[in-house]
Amino acid sequence: MSSSSGIQIPSRLPLLLTHEGVLLPGSTTRISVDSARNMQLVKSRLLKGTSLKSTIIGVIPNTKDPEHDGEELPSLHRGHYKLLFIGTAGLAVQVVGSNWPKPHYTLLITGLCRFRVSQLLRERPFPVAMVEQLDRLEQYTEGEQLDGELGELSQRFYQAAVQLVGMLDMSVPVVAKLRRLLDSLPRETLPDVLASMIRTSNTEKLQVLDAIDLEERFKKTLPLLTRQIEGLKLLQKTRKLRPDDDKRVLAIRKGGVFPGRQFSLEEDGEDEDGDDMVVLDRKVKEAGMPEPALRVCLKELKRLKKMPQSMPEYALTRNYLELMVELPWSKSTTDCLDIRAARVLLDNDHYALEKLKRRVLEYLAVRQLKSALKGPILCFVGPPGVGKTSVGRSIARTLGREFHRIALGGVCDQSDIRGHRRTYVGSMPGRIINGLKTVGVNNPVFLLDEVDKLGKSLQGDPAAALLEVLDPEQNHSFTDHYLNVTFDLSQVLFIATANTTATIPPALLDRMEVLQVPGYTQEEKVEIAHRHLIPHQLEQHGLTPQQLQIPQDTTQEIISKYTREAGVRSLERKIGAICRAVAVKVAEGHKLSKTESSRVDSDIAAPPEMPIVIDQIALKDILGPQIFEMEVSERLTLPGVAIGLAWTPLGGEIMFVEASRMEGEGQLTLTGQLGDVMKESAHLAITWLRSNAKTYQLTNIAGCADPLEGNDIHLHFPAGAVTKDGPSAGVTIVTCLASLFSGRLVRSDVAMTGEITLRGLVLPVGGIKDKVLAAHRAGLKRIILPKRNEKDLEEIPGHIRAELDFVTAGTLDDVLNAAFDGGFPALSLTHPQITSKL
Ligand code: ADP
Predict the structure, then answer these.
(1) In this structure, what DSSP letter does residue 46 have?
(2) Residues enclosing ligand 1, CB less than 6 A?
(3) Which of 331, 371, 467, 505 is the most exposed place for a label (fewest CB within 10 A)?
(4) Is residue 358 within 8 Å of 347, Cβ to Cβ?
(5) Is 763 strand, coil or helix?
(6) DSSP letters of 82-131?
(7) Nearest 5°: phi and psi at 613?
């Protein structure tokens, strides 16, 4: 081809050898430059040069493996003539330097025309050569018509190119521009331009570059073009089959300016905006929303389409719509409820908890009979670690429903439940709606964990928001502030858990049916450990029963010496600790402990014995010295100490009450974290004792009949910083003071609970089962409780009842008689007999 007419490139060109693809005339590409040779070229030619000429360089594709590309230009000498001698003269449009991760330049180069190296002038510091221009480079004029065979070929090529562009989405500006360019560009430039746009390998591009002859070039490029067209057709066919994938097809990098940028007609990850809207639109229609929600969505969608993407509101609206389409408006799972199977499943998952399991089964049975049950919300109340959450999970499993736990502890903002209005920056839906989005169905089991720990703040009362959620009469039209349309929650099965009912707001409590889950007895814990916790922990640590065995005795030791809790959570942790220790040994292939090996030191070389059995010594090795001791009897060696039973949200506890007296003016000092009710009980106790001092021969230090005369009394409730309150310590305070004033010791194996009145009656109290279990844990033998609590004893397992001696007391007289060895006789038998009328 003649190069005599049109624009001439300089005849001396510096050469840039690049591994990065092939620059074809008419396309623009970025080339990263980091080899010493090329860096030199950039520095001394492109950065120093001032004329337009100096920005023209020869770009030669380097087919050599970059690893072995040294300082030399060996390939030039060894002569891959065909490849190396032909290159593209390019105009460096932009040079960007950077130091990271190593010094390099990035060049933006537009290809002008082919050239052939006619003579290499020098090689260092960068090659410079005499070149011969191969393509005609013209100012944009009407390209002259090609004729003959070439004309026909170029016409076919042009038509194929038009067909290809026609398959793209014309509404994208860059495609429209490309279409216009096809007509205005001279035909002979089309092969180069299209070859650099469509999907071609470097080798194919090299072949195009090598095709100096125009006819050959057309012939080389046409099949590539046809291939791309076929590929697109195939893609469009699959698109019809899979409508969801619309947006991925025909994605074109946005904003490309021809020929200043390369196109890629293949699909790539970037979403095309217009397509996205179509998808969103369809999703909205397919989401199965009720009419009002659909109307809101369509309105928002309409607004979104008109909004420029740069507007902050665009993202907001889009997020909103995406949430709306994801919500399970009409998606639900089918309940598969078989009461017999449910019973087996609950029994398999949980040992003990009979009462709770019975009630749960009743509840499920009623649901089976009447599916649209607007039944009560179950609320499991009990100490931590007694399996409340885990029963909730089992219920979901028996019903075949999704399970989602919403932790409410510490939530003090009502928008946590109900969401923020969309006008706020960063607004989002509340936890209920979020939970529904997570589970993806509209009838999951939601476990509202720790409803007793809801807080209150200036941001409103979350408990009040929960009222609406939990009320079966209202929750079919629950409105989240973020959604601003109603969502039907009536299919959701709510279960709540709490440690105590005391801090649950009354209105909320009223909506729920409270099921008490008391703590476990020692024996129950041993069973739970062996049936559930140990197998579970073994599995978690990748151990088998053939490797680790924990005998029952050891479990009992763990329970009594290393844990003190109503539930089984720290027991589970301790078992986990044992498993970890054994896992190390198993992995090492050693014996369990030094102590063990010393016992069998006669055969030190013996292989590790499996299973490793955890005995007392091993237990001490792993868990350290015992944490809790039975200190009860030691503390009761002085007058003025008595043991009470307290109920806390963490289960029952034994509580020591200590009293001492000294000379003073009849002051009463109370210490220990006490609530008001407890202080009142202390005053009541003192008053009753003073008024009955004569009867029981109670005296002050000096032996005077008024115990307070010239004496100060100090009452202390040790153990912990936990605030103790409630009326049930009354009898204990009386007993403790009676011991102090009489100088007699309270029996060391007796614990008591009960509220007192000024007249000396003992009133019933709550939490009997937990309290009795705590006393039993502590190894006490006799328990004094109010007469009217006798019925509560039925809840206590038979074997524990058998081990304890229960004394029911109607009056304080009964209490004192039972608390002291040999009774606590009253002197005057004329003391009027009091009978409870309460
Ligand atoms: P809570 O919710 O009452 O604080 P969890 O349900 O989290 O307690 O229970 C703590 C752990 O104790 C769980 O691993 C659970 O499986 C186990 N667990 C508690 N009670 C039982 C039981 N009766 N039978 C079997 N495992 C139990």
Answers:
(1) I
(2) 350-353, 384-390, 497, 528, 532, 567-569, 572
(3) 371
(4) no
(5) strand
(6) HHHTEEEEEEEEEEEEE-SSSSEEEEEEEEEEEEEEEEEEE-SSS-EEEE
(7) -100, 130
Backbone angles phi and psi of 121, in degrees to 5: -85, -45
At 107-128, the pLDDT tens digits run: 889 999 999 888 888 888 888 8
- Say if residue 439 carries a ligand binding annotation: no
User: What are the residues facing 381 on neighbouring strands?
Assistant: 498, 516
Confidence band (pLDDT; 50, 70, 90) for 734?
Answer: very high
Ligand 1 centre from 412 Cα, in Å?
Answer: 27
pLDDT at 601 over 60: no
Does 151 belong to an annotated binding site? no
| Rounded CA separation 26/48 (Å) | 26
Give the whole-angstrom CA distance, residue 571 versus residue 771.
20
Catalytic amino acids?
728, 771
Segments in 242-290 forming alpha helices (H): 273-286
Q: Please state the atom number of ligand 1 nearest to the C-alpha of residue 533.
A: 26
Mutate to test the pocket of ligand 1, among 569, 571, 650 (most ligand atoms within 8 A of CB): 569
82 annotated ligand binder: no
- What are 752-777's pLDDT values in tens digits? 999 999 988 999 998 898 889 888 88
Whether 251 shows a pLDDT value over 70: the answer reads no
Q: DSSP alpha helices (H): ranges in 327-401?
A: 339-349, 354-369, 388-399
Residue 511 DSSP one-character state? T
